Amino acid sequence: MPALVEPHGGVLVDRFVAPSDVAAFQERARFLPRIDLDARELADLEMIATGASSPLTGFLGLADYESVVRRMRLADDTVWSLPVTLAVTEAICAALVPGSEAALFGAGRLWGTLEIEQIFDRDPLAEAQAIYGTVDVSHPGVAYLLSRPRWLVAGPVRVLPLPDDLPFAARRLTPRELRSEIAARGWRTAVGFQTRNPIHRAHEHLTKLALEMTDGLVIHPLIGETKSGDVTAEVRFRAYEALVANYYPGDRTVLAAFPAAMRYAGPREAIYHAITRKNYGMTHFIVGRDHAGVGKFYSPYAAQEIFERFSPGEIGITPVKLDATFFCHACDSTASSRTCPHDASHRLDLSGTRVRELLENGGELPRQFTRPEIAEILREHYRSTGNGNGNGNGHGNGHGIGDGDRPPVVVLPGRPEAPSSEGGFILWFTGLSGAGKSTLANALRTRLAAERPVEILDGDEVRTFLSAGLGFSREDRDTNIRRIGYVSRLLARNGVVAIAAAISPYCETRREVHRLAVKDGVPFLEIFAHARLDSLIARDVKGLYKKALAGTISHFTGISDPYEPPRHPDVVVETDRETVEESVARILEALRDRGLIEPRSAPPVSAVAATA
After folding, report:
1. Is 504 a catalytic residue?
2. 433, 504, 560, 583: which one is catalytic?
3. How many other C-beta atoms are found inside a 10 Å radius of the C-beta of residue 557?
């Protein structure tokens, strides 16, 4: 058998408890302090235990943490780009003592133990800036980080054998198992492909280009936690299995599950994805345009360029840097900007929203865009859930597919086919506390009140008078937003402009409110009031953001509770970069474009002539 690539750090880590020791291990763990892990931390724990995160043997201590954040290396100079940490509340910290152990629980079961070596606190904003290049809470990685406690507990772990009932158990090959499979097939070189979305034709093309230069291909989709709106792992795996069965050579292709959670850390995560794939036995790794990116936080090729900061021997796996591909009608083939001479007008370009609309409404996706088997799997998913996205690009926005969280606009029988400039409608402001939602709502009321009745449903007032007694759990927050949505629809159906100004933190609940408005024939505009975190902190005269960051306030949205920014709002207002008047003007222009308010009067002929 050919020799396989060496694991990162030289040794493939194994932190599993021996089967013969399981019973005694479980009994002893009953008497240890308990730490509960969230989904990302459980994914990290599995990656450590199996050796996928070699050379790590546990959660990072202070020296390694600071070194990784500052220079993308462990304290011993080994390249490592992302901090793998375990966060605990201050209350839990009080029960933990360095030199002792703690039991690790998650999803209702015991997973292992941690030998506590250190307990230390971090600066979440400094970590966010270093890892993600931003402190903007619209970045899902930043939002997650700021929602977690600032205290970290570090030390090596021991982990029980993985349960047999984990999702994709048959495909969840550990590094040792995948290495054995690669060796048994006699592959001297193997290229890995990372994805968190269905594979459409453009990325199928990339994988086959890579397969031309290596002995084998490992399609290694991520099954850990992703952001709201990504197609579920269950649906994606059905699509992968159909694709591999029908369109890839079976003797040169392996489909296996990668249990890591997405961080959306762009360039840094590209390094992490490459190193961990080396631990699985891969010699090459596809790095596409905007790998592990989100929105426009990273430049398109930053994830490829970051590999130049390290010598090939330090990384130990060869990045295969490929450009985004697309189907060009003029070329009549799949191409990239490097091989196609035609401009973007010749490209097959379908947005995520358009993909979803086509499939939900019985339309067909072009065969040049996706395989028919994949289209049917996605169609069934969208019809059964009314949710998800059609993003076929695991590395950003390479071939015209984007995330979507908006229901398609439909015309209902008996409803007017065009919006009326005399009827009611809903303006739904969403954004963090202090982003300016109420200020803009009041300014709009002043501008619109001369034309028709306007009512504002302010989040704080609704909680006082309509939702008294509700707390800040996910369920209570959703209930509050549904009530605001219901009252807004009642007002709009009776000719009133309903302006809702509430944080409304969850995408799916906002989508539900929008869907119900569309069902009632009520025009609905979602407006994202966005401001950078440092601006929000500066505006906060009560100091609530600083208290939340310090861990003294719980359930503070955007810090200790999640906020999911809209991916495709109708209007985005940058309230820390533009005046109230500028923001209001852009919202009014959006209303005019949709025929919801009267257009501006045309200037006099003399004025037109003067400016011609």
Report:
1. yes
2. 504
3. 20
